[in-house]
Amino acid sequence: MKTYSGKYRIKHRSKYQGDADNIIYRSGWEARCFSWCDNNPSIKKWSSEEIVIPYLYEVDKRYHRYFVDLKIMFKDGKTVLVEIKPEIQTAPPKYTGRKTKRYINEGMTYIKNMNKWKAAENFAKDRDWEFQIWTEKTLRSMGILPKQLKALKKMPPLKRL
Question: Whole-model pTM?
């Protein structure tokens, strides 16, 4: 996944809670989710990184601030906090028998994510909301990302003429 960021241009300003002139996406997936929220008729209000949740990071034993990717309020009264992450970052790193620098960094990131998500779950539960993690699989199943064409992945590279 190529990561990029930019400013999202909102179409339905009345649906956004927060500064509608300063909506920043930090990945292509976030940009697509913003568009989905902006154009979804079942969504009453939405915001990005407007909810800040304190969490205790187990590694340094200090409190930090977690800015949740999305808050979505549906017309049916349901409210959902959403974190958008690649599937690989939702599982502990695979141990290969060596504690490499990469393995240690991935492990610390995993611990930080678990600490954030536990705090977000409690924060949401206290308000009768839900907390969800949307991965590429979730985004595909929702139609936010296109379905992958497995056949294209299996094709040999094109030969130059």
Answer: 0.86
